[in-house]
Each structure stands twice: as C-alpha cells, then as structure tokens.
Amino acid sequence: MTGRVLLLPPGPTATAGRLAEAATARGVGVRTLHRRPVPSGLRGRAHVYGGGAFASEVAAELDVALLAPGPGWLPGLPAEFTGRRVRLGTLGEARGLDAPTFVKPACGKGFPPGVYGQGPPHALPDSTPVLLADPVTFAGEYRLHVLDGAVHAASRYAVHGVLDAAPLDVLPERAAVEDFAAELLAHAAPGLPSAVVVDVGLITSPGPPRHAVVEANEAWFSNCYAAPPDRVLDVVLRAAAPRGDLARRDVPFARI
Fold first, then answer.
1. Is 21 helix (H, G, I), strand (E, B) or coil?
2. Calculated CA dihedral for residues 56, 59, 61, 63, nearest 10 degrees
3. Could you give the CA distance from residue 218 to residue 45 in angstroms, rounded to a whole number?
4. Of 228, 169, 168, 229, whose CA–CA distance to 199 is shortest?
5. Under 8 Å CB-to-CB from 151, ≥6 apart: which residues?
6. How far apart are CA 49 and CA 46, in angstroms?
7. Which of 47, 127, 153, 256 could pair with 227 in a Cys bridge, judged by C-beta atoms 3.0 to 4.6 Å apart?
8. What's this model's pTM, rounded to 2 decimal places?
C-alpha cells in the first residue's frame, strides 16, 4: 500500500480515528480534508472513509470506486435468512400504509428508518425507493465486515435496540452468530460486493427466536463498533479504492 492515502472528512468520529491509527501503523497515509478543492494529485492513490456526500464528492474528483450493496439484495433473500417479510417499494407506497411497517431508505440515509403507521413524514418524492418490512424485535444485533465472501471482522453493536458494543469473539453467542453468517454468505455473498458490511441479529418476536439479516451497508460509511480496526481497515480500503483496483466481479457494485 506504499503511496496510498486514506481520506477522511473534517468531522471527527471514533471509527475514523481508529481507522487512521490502523492505517498509519501499516504505512498508509492519512489525510483529513478540512477544505476544498479535493487535491487532484491523489488520483490513483486515494481511499475514502466518510459520509455519503463527502465520499461521493471525493470519489468523483479522484476516480474512486465506491462499492455498495444493491437495494434488491435483502428483499431477494429467502425467508430463512430474512426472518420476516421484506420487499422493495416506494415512499409513495409507504405513505399509503394502513398498518405499522418498518420503513428505511433503499439507498443512502434520506430519512431515519423506523416503524411507521402511514409512512415517513419527510419531504422526499413518492418515487424514492424504500425497503418495507414486517416489524420485529431484535434481541441482539451484530455487525459483520465481510471480505471476499467471509466474515473478516465482527462486533455486537446493540442489545434490545440499545447501543452495546462488544467484540464478537468474547460473547457466548459467538458460535451461533458465526454459523448463521457462514450459511448466509455461502448462499448470498455472490450478490454482494467483495467488501461490504452485513448486519445480522436474533429476532425474538413475533414468533420463535431465529437469526436473520438486518441489512447490508457500505463499508466506507459504517461504524466499526468493537471490531478490530486493522481488520475493518482491510474491508474499507477495498470498498473505496482507486478505480484501477476494481475487480471485474465488483463492477456492478461500483456506485461512482
């Protein structure tokens, strides 16, 4: 990675700080972009970690390929992996709901995800793609940083909806989470970028307890929680890298 640089946004975050330390330790340069324009001399050497607007701006200027899961991945999974009904729809459909439904943006973070009775009250077009799902209760939720179809780093991030980060390898439920993740990725990894974040959890109601996918997200815009930063960095560097590094299998997932 000689000559490579990890670009970070001006607003500090815990994950950005941990990734910066891990990058420095392995000889990857770290640069916080406090002002514009984006330095064109970094083209071909830049990797990115940060929010959607920041990452998109840097990617467009420096020809960085941002890998992102497609909006149809989660609703396209078999019920054994979703643990509930999930479908791709529009915000117009969500606004016409007559029963509580979990609604989240299919891409990006245009409004806070949550359970809505008549759709999110946000001034976005009716055509905005959203995911619509049956409301369920997750007792525990876990973030998996996935690289080349296998879990590369993992952390619990919530218990009963409350932030409670802990390394997965110290938890008694580790084996059950890892077994579910292995089965899921054996089936569904081809439909994901080679570097991505997948959140999974244990649903406890309604119905019997079962493991299920929560969602998939961009690795270059995801909290590492209690996962080893050096392992997370491996995934981030692949997920937001110079276009010249882009593997053929990742071309369909390159957002920029």
1. helix
2. -150
3. 20
4. 168
5. 144, 145, 178, 181, 182, 185
6. 10
7. 153
8. 0.94
In 3-state terms, what secondary structure has residue 228? coil
- Reading phi first (left if > 0) and then psi (alpha if -120 to 50, else beta), residue 148 is in left
State what percent of residues in the chain have pLDDT above 70.
Answer: 98
Give 213's strand partners.
200
User: Sign of the CA dihedral 200, 203, 209, 212?
Assistant: negative
| Cβ proximity of 230 and 6 under 8 Å | no
Specify the amino acid at residue 115: V
Show the 3-state SS of 127-143.
CCEEEEECCCEEEEEEE
Average pLDDT of the chain to the nearest whole number: 94
Q: Is 157 helix (H, G, I), strand (E, B) or coil?
A: strand
Question: Model confidence at 66, in pLDDT bands (50, 70, 90)?
Answer: very high
**Could you read off the pLDDT of 93-151 as tens digits, one per residue?**
988 888 899 999 888 788 888 898 866 767 889 999 999 999 999 999 999 999 999 99
C-alpha span between 154 and 174 (Å, rounded): 10
Kindly state the tokens that stand for 85.
């009904």
Task: Transcribe 83-126 into DSSP letters.
Answer: SS-EEEEEHHHHHT-SS-EEEEESSS-SS--EEESS-------T
256 pLDDT band, cuts 50/70/90, is low
